[in-house]
Specification:
- The chain is an alpha/beta fold and 309 residues long.
- β7, α6 and β8 form a beta-alpha-beta unit.
- The strands form three sheets. Strands 6-7-8-3-9-10 form a six-stranded mixed beta sheet, sandwiched between helices. Strands 2-1-4-5 form a four-stranded antiparallel beta sheet, with helices on one face. Strands 12-13-11-14 form a four-stranded antiparallel beta sheet.
- α3 crosses α4 and α3 runs parallel beside α5.
- The longest helix is centred in the middle third of the chain and has 16 residues.
- The radius of gyration is 25 Å and the shape is elongated.
- The relative contact order is 0.13.
- The structure holds adenosine-5'-triphosphate and magnesium ion.
- Magnesium ion binds next to α1.
Length: 309
């Protein structure tokens, strides 16, 4: 039994393959029932981290506890708590969806395997395709079956390594909904992704992994605060408006988009600056057709942080 709310705790994780240092002191923790996204580009060390957390690989240094159990010393207990859905789906192509589920159910010594398989096929919208070989499934169906197979043992933690890579936009949104439902049902989800938008949509907390190091972590809101500035965009009726505005606001960092009759002004996000800009425009009687405040995206944060490291 663990007393607190932390389900996954990772401390000082290091891993090398021969001379290649893949993980360099990785630390993070994940709260019960939350969705945690490990965000990073190709080769950042995401799959390596997931492999260590799910007992499939050994770290050189550091410790990992899942539900209070040590992944090295209590690997069996950890395995009972987790489910891993890999970057490359583990579905048996020759078997039907139903048979895949039944097989895993038997491995887990589930009592009423057929009933459980049916429940999962229904939940993951695979009933119609249940008795076709998995080789005939689309990428999205295969991923859903893979996750369903992972749920047979009633895990409390689920690892999803790039759950939406290669899926079309519609299947991606369906997968996001599945992941949200898993979390709502109390399962702790740790997923990896290369998509900022995915992390932004799903994650309660995000850790940005770059070349084996966590370079930033926090909620989407917290990460965005790392870039306090934003832009104000103003649209004018004609070229004269743009020119006049540029003169008026010459003390600011202004960029032009003449094609769309807009200018973009970098601000520190303060009301004071906003008021000053509006004041100057108001005094000159300049007609502003549209004003919008553009906040930094997670992508800005990501690129800024990666650029600094
Ligand atoms: N078994 C291995 N032997 C040698 N090098 C490895 C091994 N597994 C991974 N690596 C290397 O470790 C680094 C991190 O790999 P990893 O698979 O963890 O990255 P990733 O973040 O999952 O990338 P991707 O987004 O491409 O899946 C890469 O440089 C990779 O080539
Ligand atoms: Mg990977």
């Amino acid at each position: 039994m663990i007393q607190n709310d932390t389900v996954i705790s990772v401390n000082g994780l290091e891993k090398s393959y021969k001379n290649l240092k893949v993980l360099k002191k990785v630390d993070f923790s994940v709260k019960r029932g939350s969705i945690f996204a490990l965000l990073g580009s190709n080769g950042a060390g995401k799959t390596t981290t997931i492999k260590i957390l799910s007992t499939l690989a050994k770290a050189d240094k550091g410790s990992v506890k899942i539900c209070g159990f040590d992944v090295l010393k209590q690997a069996d207990k950890v395995r009972r708590e987790i489910s891993l859905t890999g970057q490359y789906a583990a579905v048996d192509e020759v078997l039907t969806g139903r048979e895949n589920l039944q097989l895993i159910g038997k491995l887990h010594h589930i009592h009423n395997v057929d009933k459980k398989a049916n429940e999962l096929l229904e939940k993951f919208k695979l009933l119609d395709a249940a008795d076709r070989p998995a080789s005939t499934y689309s990428g999205g169906m295969r991923r859903r079956l893979d996750i369903a197979m992972g749920l047979i043992g009633n895990p409390s933690v689920i690892f999803l390594d790039e759950p939406t890579t290669g899926l079309d936009p519609q299947s991606r949104i369906a997968m996001w909904n599945i992941i949200k439902e898993l979390s709502a049902s109390g399962i702790t989800v740790l997923l990896t992704t290369q998509y900022l938008e995915e992390a932004e949509q799903l994650a309660d907390e995000i850790a940005i992994l770059n070349e084996g190091k966590i370079v930033a972590k926090g909620t989407v809101k917290e990460l965005k605060k790392l870039l306090p500035y934003g832009h104000i965009e103003l649209r004018f009726g004609d070229e004269n408006g743009i020119k006049l505005a540029c003169d008026l606001l010459s003390e600011y960092n202004v960029s032009l988009d003449e094609k769309n009759s807009t200018i973009s002004i970098v601000t520190d996000g303060s009301i004071k600056q906003m008021a000053d800009i509006l004041n100057k425009l108001e005094k000159s009687n300049l007609l502003v057709l549209e004003l919008s405040q553009i906040k930094p995206t997670l992508e800005d944060v990501f690129l800024n942080i990666i650029g600094e490291n």
